[in-house]
Design brief:
Strand order of the largest sheet: 1-2
Distance between the termini: 123 Å
Order of helices and strands: HHEHHHHHHHHHHEHH
Bound molecules: zinc ion
Shape: flat
Helix content: 55-70%
Structural class: mainly alpha
Number of strands: 2
Length: 382
């Protein structure tokens, strides 16, 4: 089959920036050196781009796992243009296709089954999606979002403005124009690109599959460290509506921490989490499957059938206990909620009655005064 035409713009961007990062940056570091200001500025620029993609493009717009205040949306939209990964609309539309048709070589734009290179960067080096770019019919919701559409319609200006403007301004402030161009301009861009690309490539190859093996996605703590928490990709592919990727508190997921922290100052709201019972069940189902497969290899073992039955029985028991626990917990929460509502209603009733009481007492006193005065007048007349 004839391969699609080469996408020269992408090829030149990736190769030029890649070469500068690989050769120019170490050369400058060795012969001139970067000072602390330059390194700190690069660190923050990298974080700005990285989190705009993970918290913005990915978890906010592609998956709608929470809602964001327009101020935050605006900041994330700018950071996304700075990351030079196409517009929110285009990126999210591609990503929704990836989830819907994961590993389908004909439909998944960066199918891992096409190999590491293709899923990492190859899919962007040739014009694989000629029809794409005008439709976006899987992102109608985003087409109604003013900030998303503003960023989409002004993407080129925003991308150039941030990628040239930010290193330029920092260079003018600091007086090290070339150093800023190499680090905040290029190295930051290349690191951000490849850490994002790792999610499509490495996170579909390297790591564990504790939740599902129906697709190639993997959980990988090391990758999570390099990608602001996106490395828990096996969990993400099964619970894509969850604002977290690393669900345990010790999981390294700065994107989750940022979204949660912003909720305390009302910049984010409606943070969605998957029901704990479904997460636990997915884990148990997966473990049952792998244990059965392991047992199957020991088929010649004398008590093979007995072990298999025992495994199944333990699983059934676990499911019963799990359902009992979560049903009871749900009922308890419902009662607690009702209790609080009742208490609020009681407080309201108490407040209303005491207000009425005060008013009636006042009226009664006035009437009593009038009554006594009238009687006194009567006595005087008689
Ligand atoms: Zn996703
Ligand atoms: Zn994926």
């Amino acid at each position: 089959m004839k391969k699609p035409a080469i996408a020269w713009l992408n090829v030149s961007i990736f190769s030029t920036t890649g070469l500068i990062a690989l050769l120019g940056v170490p050369y400058y570091a060795y012969f001139v050196g970067f000072d602390l200001f330059t390194l700190v500025a690069s660190f923050f620029a990298l974080g700005f781009c990285g989190l705009s993609i993970t918290a913005g493009y990915h978890r906010l717009w592609a998956h709608k796992t929470y809602q964001a205040h327009p101020i935050l949306e605006f900041i994330l939209a700018i950071g996304g243009a700075f990351a030079l990964q196409n517009s929110i609309l285009h990126w999210s539309s591609d990503h929704r296709v990836h989830h819907k048709h994961v590993d389908d070589n004909d439909k998944d734009p960066y199918s891992a089954k096409m190999g590491f290179w293709h899923s990492h960067i190859g899919w962007m080096l040739r014009d694989y999606q000629t029809s794409h770019g005008t439709d976006y019919n899987n992102a109608r919701d985003l087409q109604r979002n003013k900030i998303v559409m503003w960023q989409h319609n002004n993407y080129l200006a925003l991308a150039l403005g941030t990628n040239i403007g930010i290193p330029l301004v920092l260079g003018l402030i600091h007086g090290e124009m070339l150093a800023m161009f190499l680090t905040v301009g290029v190295l930051r861009l290349v690191l951000n690109h490849h850490s994002t690309f790792f999610i499509n490539s490495l996170a579909h190859v390297w790591g564990e599959q504790p939740y599902t093996d129906k697709n190639t996605a993997r959980d990988n703590g090391i990758l999570a460290f390099l990608t602001y928490g996106e490395g828990y990709h096996n969990f993400h592919h099964i619970f894509e509506g969850d604002y977290r990727n690393g669900i345990k508190w010790w999981h390294y997921d700065p994107t989750k921490w940022l979204i949660k922290a912003c909720s305390y100052v009302k910049l984010t709201s409606n943070l969605k989490v998957s029901p704990e019972s479904r997460i636990e069940k997915a884990r148990a189902d997966m473990l049952l499957k792998t244990s059965k497969e392991r047992l199957l290899k020991l088929k010649k073992m004398a008590n093979y059938q007995e072990q298999l039955d025992k495994l199944q029985q333990e699983y059934e028991n676990l499911m019963t206990q799990l359902n009992d626990y979560y049903d009871t917990k749900r009922r308890l929460l419902e009662i607690k909620k009702k209790d609080i509502q009742d208490r609020v209603a009681q407080i309201d009733l108490h407040r209303e009655l005491s207000k009425q009481c005060d008013q009636l007492k006042q009226r009664w006193r006035v009437q009593k005064k009038q009554w006594l005065a009238f009687n006194q007048n009567l006595q005087l007349v008689s």
